[in-house]
């Protein structure tokens, strides 16, 4: 998060004595990224956060690849992913490369028996269905339909759902996820031409502090293995923190679309960036207003990036036979464009209600075995007249 946040109790000067009412010291932890060069947070714990009792299990959760090299456009029917009780087991990686993994999940139950920590990747969780509360060591965030939850790597969390009907679209990123640099000034403040501002980014306001000892399981993901680590103290024992590295939420419904007289290119929809992929939000908006404008996009050849669109809601103007929860994959190397009839159909229309999330990766994506279970292999022919 590119701006400063403070929650709970902290001492006036960092790295100085900060004592509990009984006179003992709180345990300070500097939690940083990119060595000591990236964003960091300074937190104060009831107990030292280093008290490992044992490592109980280790198992691999790397995505199983079905198609590594390919040049095929696919449609995946995301809602065919079966709901599962456990949050981590419900997460099905569908597309992956060395920079990121795209995951679909339909978890039915809140995480109760364990905490989760992903040290490999930042997680961007888009809430397609469901409401609840993300609980983290640095505070909680309520979520609902349309929210992006950004959890920087290493933040310990649990997720509570209010009902069993939940659908998540998750991007794991091995590079930090930021808001686009071109929308920020040299101080990091979001500029006037940005499609959102600081008021739209929700920071944790509710800090849970558990001063407890016992056996606390943290499932730690590292190098695609899960290590079940048992800690002697509750991982949510922070009494206060400040800094820049913390989870936050942003609703896609707060993204203000940028429109024009003629078709605007995908970068106007950009919401997040990394140096390996971008995330864009397609939201309800007015169409282009040149008298001869064509609202549907032109054919385009994303020769060096794979395009993943996750369809959330509304009628997606350029595609035929696309429903909520579908993913389209248009791979690098070949052109794609509107489906037959979509260009003519778009002319004269004044607005769209479409809602979609797009992930464009610079490296090709591999298709997983889980993805092939919900794949439409005929989609490649869907542009034929
Ligand atoms: Fe495209």
Structure description:
The chain is mainly beta and 385 residues long. The protein is built from 3 helices and 29 strands. The chain has helices at 87-90, 342-346, 369-372; strands at residues 5-8, 27-32, 40-45, 52-60, 65-67, 74-77, 92-96, 100-105, 115-118, 122-129, 132-136, 141-143, 147-151, 157-161, 167-173, 201-202, 213-222, 225-233, 238-243, 248-251, 270-273, 277-282, 285-286, 306-313, 326-330, 351-352, 355-361, 366-368, 375-376. The chain has a 9-stranded antiparallel β-sheet. A 7-stranded antiparallel β-sheet has the order 21-22-27-24-25-6-29, with no helix packed on it. Strand 11 (132-136) and strand 12 form a beta hairpin. The longest helix is centred in the C-terminal third of the chain and has 5 residues, at 342-346. Bound molecules: fe (ii) ion. Fe (ii) ion (FE2) binds at residues 300, 307, 330, 336.
Side by side, the strands of the main sheet go: 5-28-7-8-15-10-13-20-16
Helical proportion, percent range = under 10%
Distance between the termini: 47 Å
Number of strands: 29
In this entry the ligands are:
fe (ii) ion
Radius of gyration over all CA atoms, rounded: 22 Å
Average pLDDT value? 96
- Write down the overall geometry: globular
């Amino acid at each position: 998060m590119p701006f400063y946040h403070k929650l709970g109790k902290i001492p006036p000067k960092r790295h100085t004595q900060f004592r509990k009412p009984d006179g003992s010291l709180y345990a300070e932890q500097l939690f940083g990224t990119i060595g000591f060069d990236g964003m960091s947070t300074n937190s104060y714990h009831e107990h030292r956060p280093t008290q490992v009792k044992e490592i109980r299990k280790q198992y691999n959760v790397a995505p199983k690849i079905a198609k590594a090299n390919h040049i095929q456009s696919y449609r995946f029917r995301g809602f065919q992913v079966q709901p599962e009780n456990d949050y981590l087991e419900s997460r099905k990686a569908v597309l992956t490369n060395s920079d990121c993994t795209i995951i679909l999940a339909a978890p039915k139950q809140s995480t109760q028996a364990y905490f989760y920590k992903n040290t490999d990747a930042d997680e961007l969780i888009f809430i397609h269905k469901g409401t609840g509360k993300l609980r983290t060591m640095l505070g909680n965030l309520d979520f609902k339909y349309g929210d992006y939850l950004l959890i920087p790597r290493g933040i310990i969390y649990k997720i509570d759902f209010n009902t069993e009907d939940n659908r998540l679209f998750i991007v794991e990123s091995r590079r930090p996820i930021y808001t686009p640099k071109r929308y920020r000034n040299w101080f990091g403040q979001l500029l006037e031409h940005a499609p959102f501002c600081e008021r739209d980014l929700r920071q944790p306001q509710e800090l849970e502090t558990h001063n407890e000892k016992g056996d606390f399981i943290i499932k730690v993901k590292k190098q695609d293995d899960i290590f079940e680590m048992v800690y002697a103290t509750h991982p949510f024992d922070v009494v206060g923190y400040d800094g820049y590295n913390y989870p936050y939420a942003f609703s896609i419904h707060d993204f203000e679309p940028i429109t024009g007289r003629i078709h605007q290119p995908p970068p106007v929809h950009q919401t997040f960036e990394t140096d390996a992929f971008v995330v864009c939000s397609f939201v309800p908006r007015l169409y282009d207003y040149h008298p001869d404008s064509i609202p549907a996009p032109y054919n385009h050849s994303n020769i060096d990036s794979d395009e993943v669109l996750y369809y959330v809601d509304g009628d997606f103007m350029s595609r035929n036979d696309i429903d909520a929860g579908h993913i389209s994959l248009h791979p690098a190397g070949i052109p794609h464009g509107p489906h037959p009839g979509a260009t003519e159909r778009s002319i004269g229309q004044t607005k769209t209600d479409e809602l979609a999330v797009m992930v464009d990766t610079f490296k090709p994506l591999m298709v997983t075995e889980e993805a092939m279970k919900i794949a439409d292999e005929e989609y490649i022919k869907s542009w034929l007249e």
